[in-house]
Each structure stands twice: as structure tokens, then as C-alpha cells.
Specification:
The protein is mainly β. It is built from no helices and 17 strands.
Length: 171
């Protein structure tokens, strides 16, 4: 069974969902959350887990604009790693519990486009995905999804497009 670790250097530069831009899609705006630097409109795995170093950071190596996001593995001990993660949405830590919120989106995009680079280290791989959900009688229901696995080094920015496969006719 192959282990999938989401790592990348300057992974997303511009993110567009079928013509509609995602807020802060070029990662130009950042804010601090404790000691972490987080791209506006996004949340990271670093905000949930205390790591020796961040898995998500700001990079000056951008496809366009001034910044990009760099995603990397963080090793907790030899052979034990945690993949860097970034998600479109917000995070609220209240009462010792983490609450994840996604941004409302009422369209049915056919794809998600983004620019990426990937510096493979050993057998590491990267993954980009899109998942569209809705609430149905108090339960989260997946409406559409798409995924792209990256297995080889991509040294210069390359545009990728992930097609969304719909599992439901719901909005």
C-alpha cells in the first residue's frame, strides 16, 4: 500500500474554480494566528497541531504576484512525519474545540484550476483535491469531488485542472 504525503514547494499560486475566483486565490494576503502566518480565507493543519516547524509557509517564489504558499512535510521524529495541509475555509478554536468552517458556494463548477511546482523528496507524493458538500438534515453530504495525485518533480510552475465529478444533483 503506497503512503500518500501531501507535500509541495510553492504549491498553489492562483486558484480558480471554473471562472469564479476563490477569495485570496493568489495568496497575496496573510495574517498571523499565534506564531503562525496563515493565508487569508484559508486554514492549515498547523493551526490544529503543534509542530516543530510549520507545514505551510509563505513563499516569495510566486507564479504571479508577490507570494505563493509553500507546503511541506514536517518530521516529528525519524520516520514519523506529518504532511502540510491547506484548506479553503476558516477555523475557530473556542472552548478548547476546533470548529472548521468552509465558505458558502452555490454554483456547480466543472473544474478547479491552479498553478503548482513540486519538489519530490524520496518517495513522497502530493495531492490536490476539491470537495463540494452541503448540509442535508444535519448531515454533511458530498455533492461533488475531484482529485489529482502528483508523483514526479515539476520544477517550474505548471497549470493543472481537476475535473469535478458530481455524486448528486443537489446544489
Amino acid at each position: 500500500m503506497q503512503r500518500l504525503l501531501s507535500i509541495a514547494i510553492a504549491f498553489f499560486a492562483v486558484l480558480t474554480v471554473s471562472g469564479q475566483n476563490v477569495s485570496n486565490n493568489s495568496f497575496e494576503s496573510w495574517h498571523t494566528s499565534g506564531s503562525l502566518l496563515i493565508p487569508d480565507s484559508f486554514r492549515t493543519g498547523d493551526q490544529v497541531m503543534s509542530m516543530p516547524s510549520p507545514g505551510v509557509s509563505r513563499s516569495n517564489e510566486a507564479h504571479s504576484g508577490q507570494f505563493a504558499v509553500a507546503i511541506q512535510n514536517v518530521y516529528l521524529s525519524p520516520g514519523v512525519g506529518m504532511s502540510g495541509q491547506i484548506h479553503y475555509g476558516s477555523l475557530n478554536n473556542s472552548g478548547g474545540y476546533f470548529h472548521f468552517y468552509n465558505w458558502p458556494y452555490n454554483q456547480r463548477p466543472i473544474s478547479m484550476k491552479f498553478w503548482y511546482k513540486f519538489a519530490r523528496n524520496g518517495s513522497d507524493t502530493a495531492q490536490a483535491s476539491i470537495t463540494l458538500t452541503r448540509w442535508n438534515n444535519g448531515q454533511r453530504e458530498t455533492v461533488g469531488q475531484g482529485v489529482m495525485n502528483i508523483f514526479t518533480t515539476v520544477s517550474s510552475y505548471t497549470q493543472a485542472e481537476i475535473q469535478v465529478s458530481y455524486l448528486s444533483s443537489a446544489q
